[in-house]
Write a structure and sequence with these properties.
- The structure is a single chain.
- The protein is of the alpha/beta class.
- 34% of the residues lie in helices and 12% in strands.
- It has a nine-stranded mixed beta sheet, sandwiched between helices.
- The longest helix has 22 residues.
- It is globular.
- The N terminus is likely disordered.
């Protein structure tokens, strides 16, 4: 999962960001190690325009990810719903290795300007890439520039009268997607299409040093951002590069070795939906008293000593590894993934309400550029119920209040992968796509 915050270390207060105000948020987290998702919503500061995000010391970028390692899910469905065209501003909240972004850039090259692409610029358009993993973000930006820019001749051949000769604009933000709305507004951009794919990249799982996989032994880390730095392209403040250093969040090892048993059980129950949450937490506390739990393999062995392999579908073998839910729960807690999701949904709700009040002006009460354009199309891809539920509920609320309309064939049901896609990409089996269009 790439959707993350920058929480402080356990019991360490979050560093203030001078001069930045995140505005109203969802309220304090019930978990003491997590940061309120909006506390660092403004952490990303723009730097020079159209320059790739720099690798950050401390990131695991030695394994500069290969695009072939990860296959994006539901690409055709995303393109059919978001339908990006020439002149659009497309915000990819979770750029990953750039699979969706490249497909959308190519779609923009092939599709002429439509009525809903109301940017008024006549430009080929903008792809805004956001990711908390600096290595993946750099890879995504390189892919969009190298692959999509092969089409720049076609993109730059503007229809008569537009006067545009520029190529596709690419902006990058190394931060949680919670920071994307203010960053985009600061660049003077309003998104016509927004995508948030809440899955995480295969290269992150396959890199044992990241600590995400229970099938590979490595340090028990699980942080998606290990650099502690937020940075972005743009020239909001007249140019110049600005980077905000934010305290590194806790590793999974820190959580399992320091949290009280009751809090560990709460994490496993709430974030992993683990039926054996309490026995596993009890065993973790007992084992860490003997020796600190520092590796993924040690944690796997502890969980396996408490929970047997769960049966597969139909009661047969080959079912879920007993450690699956524990690793999911710790990853969500380390990165405060659900807090970030809630904060992004809150910002979408706020923007939709403001757009309805302003009509098609696309400006806030203070004259600032709103980060969502009138009629913006917004899509989320989720992979488990803890992610899908809040998206479903918030979209339903926006629709019921007359602020949006569903874009999926069945209003209350998500789109899922075809049989052909699940056969070629098994990871797509659990993917659910929901999309709405904001109403003016």
């Amino acid at each position: 999962m790439r959707a993350v915050l920058y929480p402080p270390r356990h019991n360490e207060p979050a560093a203030p960001i001078p001069g930045l105000n995140a505005g109203p948020g969802p309220g304090p987290s019930p978990y003491p190690w997590a940061v309120n998702a909006n506390e660092h919503a403004d952490a990303a500061m723009p730097g020079q325009p159209n320059t790739p995000a720099a690798f950050v010391p401390g990131e695991s970028v030695a394994t500069n990810p290969s695009p072939g390692q990860h296959t994006p899910v539901l690409v055709n469905e995303v393109l059919s719903l978001l339908a990006p065209v020439r002149g659009d501003v497309v915000l990819d909240c979770t750029a990953g290795l750039g699979g969706h972004a490249v497909a959308m850039a190519q779609h923009m090259a092939q599709k002429g300007r439509a009525a809903h692409a109301d940017t008024g610029t006549g430009s080929p358009g903008t792809i805004a890439l956001v990711d908390a993993d600096a290595g993946n973000l750099a890879c995504a930006a390189d892919r969009v520039r190298s692959e999509a820019f092969e089409l720049s001749g076609r993109l730059a051949s503007s229809p008569p009268g537009t006067g545009s000769t520029s190529g596709l604009r690419v902006e990058t933000l190394h931060a949680s997607f919670v920071a994307a709305p203010r960053w985009l507004s600061g660049l003077g951009l309003s998104a016509n299409a927004v995508l948030a794919d809440l899955g995480f990249c295969s290269n992150q799982v396959e890199d044992a040093t990241r600590g995400f996989s229970f099938q590979r032994d490595g340090p028990l880390d699980m942080r998606l951002n290990r650099g502690g730095v937020a940075s972005g392209t743009g020239s909001e403040s007249g140019g110049g590069s600005a980077r905000v250093h934010i305290p590194l969040g806790p590793t999974a090892a820190e959580l399992v070795n320091t949290l009280p048993e009751a809090e560990l059980a709460t994490i496993l129950r709430d974030f992993g939906e683990e039926p054996a949450a309490r026995p596993i937490a009890t065993k973790i506390v007992w084992e860490r008293a003997r020796e600190p739990i520092e590796t993924t393999q040690r944690l796997v062995e502890i969980v396996h000593s408490v929970v047997r392999r769960r049966p597969g579908r139909g009661g047969g073998g080959g079912g879920m590894d007993p450690a699956t839910k524990t690793f999911q729960a710790l990853r969500i807690a380390v990165n405060d993934e659900l807090g970030a999701l809630q904060a992004l949904l809150d910002q979408i709700d706020t923007a939709a309400t403001a757009l309805a009040a302003s009509g098609r002006a696309g400006r806030g009460s203070g004259g600032e550029t709103m980060w969502l354009a009138p009629g913006a199309r917004i899509a989320f891809i989720t992979f488990h119920s803890l992610e899908d539920r809040p998206v479903k509920q918030r979209f339903a609320s926006l629709i019921e209040r007359g602020l949006a309309e569903s874009m999926t064939p069945h209003r209350s049901k998500p789109m899922t992968a075809t049989d052909d896609e699940t056969r070629s990409n098994p990871r797509s089996r659990s993917a659910k796509l929901r999309a709405i269009r904001l109403l003016p």
